[in-house]
Amino acid sequence: MNKMWEFITDCPDFRENISFTSVDETHLIDEWGGGEFRPSFRHVGNFVRGRLPPDVSLSGLSATLIPGAATRTVCKSLGFQSGSFHLYRRSNERENLQILLHTLTHTLGGDSFPDLLQYLASKRKTIIYCATIELCWRVYIFLLRLLPPGPRRLTRIRLYHAMCWPDENEKTVELMRNDPMCQIIVSTVAFGQGFNVPSIFDSIQLGVAKTVSQTLQQGGRAGRDPATIGRMIILVQAAALKSAQKYLARHNSDSRKPAKNSKNLTTMNNEKALMLTATICLNVLLNKMFGNSTPGSSLDCIARVRRLPCSNCLPRFVGSIEYPPSPLPSGTQRLRPFSLPKPKTPVPQRHRPKNTKLTRKMRTTADVDLRKFRLQVQKAEREYD
């Protein structure tokens, strides 16, 4: 336990005046605390119950807590015993958020991500989610190379992850909120919880998240202003779709035989597999999954006349949908489009003589110089701002 919290909860003035406490984002107790990422999260309930006076009321809040096992885990952690607490569920469907799930035309192991460009062409403020910091960097470099050289592109595209300095991450959020020239944040799940930035119109998930709850949390960063049209775009690897199909086939057959690709299937779960392989309306599927029981929740986008049909209902949609760009102040220079360079004529590779190859010493020297250059670029960027 953090020593500061130990000091606070031992303070007589604090204990005499506290009457209510709440645990926000309670789905993380199961999602993060259930594994090795944040195991301490599973002890949140023990901390609250053990450190605070027994007459202090406790509540838990979440927009993406799935009924069933996840809810039972959270209730057990928080000490909510059957018959001694009230459970209220409200719909988490967002009428102004379109759900689009498409298969990637490329893998995520390379340095080119052309599937992003059709969405970025709308020039809307966008957050792009990547599973790892390393993938963040490759996406970031790919997009930078599609823009003219200069410091302006360092404002238009920003990185946000745990390896960035805290003040850099804070600056990135501030730019996305207030600077019309900041269009894109490339981020990990670090930007996936609790952020309310109404200027973000689109959320693109490059690859499938670990859970459906995380998918909705990341997608929910878009369209926070109900008056805007938001998009939750999920770009899935073909391999993930195959894993989902195999998972469901194995689950439905109730086979006890170990699967050949069991390593791939360990990252799959029932809710995620159902979402990836769904042919029905995605809104209907998610409403059922999260226990949303509002009027029309069981109707597909066409039957319910949703103004933003999901990708599964879109082929039957009659009409057009416009995705307006993020507003720019009058007189502001327009954002230049991202465009892939024309393919170059391949040049035959020639065998290099051994004496022209980089030695280990040369590589070490280059590494030191490049690190110095990185610091110079960061300093120049701060001075420019």
List the helices and strands and how they pair.
Layout: H1 3-10, H2 12-17, E1 20-23, H3 27-31, H4 44-51, E2 57-60, H5 69-78, E3 97-103, H6 117-120, E4 126-129, H7 133-144, H8 152-156, E5 157-160, H9 166-178, E6 184-187, E7 202-206, H10 212-219, E8 230-236, H11 238-253, H12 262-265, H13 270-277, H14 282-289, H15 301-304, H16 360-384
Family: Belongs to the helicase family. RecQ subfamily.
Region (Disordered): 325-365
Enzyme class: isomerase
How would you sum up this structure, described in words?
Among the domains are: 76 residues, no CATH class; 139 residues, Rossmann fold. Helices cover 37% and strands 10% of the residues. The model has no long low-confidence stretch (mean pLDDT 90). The longest helix is centred in the last third of the chain and has 25 residues. The chain is α/β, with parallel strands linked by helices. Keywords: Hydrolase. One of its GO terms (cellular component) is cytoplasm. It catalyses: Couples ATP hydrolysis with the unwinding of duplex DNA by translocating in the 3'-5' direction. This is DNA 3'-5' helicase.
How much helical structure, as a percent, in the residues?
25-40%
CATH class descriptor name of the domain at 97-235: Alpha Beta
The CATH superfamily of the domain at 97-235 is P-loop containing nucleotide triphosphate hydrolases
* Backbone structural class: alpha/beta
Please write the string of helix (H) and strand (E) elements: HHEHHEHEHEHHEHEEHEHHHHHH
User: Rg from C-alpha positions?
Assistant: 24 Å
Straight-line distance between termini: 40 Å
Inertia-based shape? globular
The stretches of 5 or more residues where confidence is low (pLDDT under 50) are none
CATH architecture assignment of the domain at 97-235: 3-Layer(aba) Sandwich
Proportion of residues in β-strands: 5-15%
- Number of E strands: 8
Strand order of the largest sheet: 3-8-7-4-6-5
Pfam families: Helicase_C
EC number: 5.6.2.4
GO biological process, one term: double-strand break repair via homologous recombination
Keywords: Hydrolase
